[in-house]
Amino acid sequence: MQKTILITGSTDGIGKLTATKLASDGHAVYLHGRSPEKLTATISEIKKVSKNEIIDGFVADLSDQDAVEKMTEQINMDLPQIDVLINNAGIFKSPASHNGKGLDIRFAVNYLAPFLLTKNLIPLIKKGTDPRIINLSSAAQSSVSGDALCSAVNLSDQEAYAQSKLALTMWSFHLAEILPNIAVIAVNPGSLLNTKMVAQAYGRSWASADKGADILYDLAVLEDYKGITGRYFDNDQGHFAQAHPDAYSEIKIDQLIRITRNLI
Length: 264
Fold this sequence. Notes:
Elements: E1 4-7, H1 13-24, E2 28-33, H2 36-50, E3 55-59, H3 65-78, E4 84-87, H4 105-126, E5 132-136, H5 146-149, H6 157-178, E6 183-188, H7 196-202, H8 209-221, E7 231-234, E8 239-241, H9 250-263
Parallel strand pairs: 1-2, 1-4, 2-3, 4-5, 5-6, 6-7
Antiparallel strand pairs: 7-8
Helix pairs in contact: 1-2, 1-8, 3-4, 4-6
């Protein structure tokens, strides 16, 4: 069955690889990118490689909440439904450590953007067949500081990234609770995969980016994962596993969601 699939951060890395795999199966795939030129080029490339013309895309700088709002308005006008949303876009290092509103750019892109984007697309996802939301977490997870989330204190690149990824995981579990008819999974696609983000952050890699694309593909469309929700898949181990302990604390999740709603 053909699915309608939206993947953020899909003009490069595992997002692009996943989009290509899904397009090659005949699914309607919608990409997202920050650069209009790069997005257009990637759409053309994937159409050619996959021999699938049902590929399109949307542009937004995910560090800018106004841009996210504008993009989701366009998506709601253009698409009748979304069967699978993959919140793949992420950032570790950046020339600018904060966005235009003074928020740490890791929190803005890795957590606040998918939170806002998903919230605005829930009506379309509810119309989907076997709807799934796949959120890109990480093996790097660190207790979330409310002050850091609100940019009252500054963090190192590594700490901001780890906190943003735990925030995403905690929100994923919250989303699974309040949306019982939508499957929500947080996934560590694999540590130090051969992507541009990893190269910029660490200068080395441990595994091919295909490892991450393969698990995103599987979680998105395979029947094996139908109906599984509120779980964390650790692709370093190759199975569902325990996330950071904070991801299971109702008190800490409630605090995080309250702060997040105030920020957006």
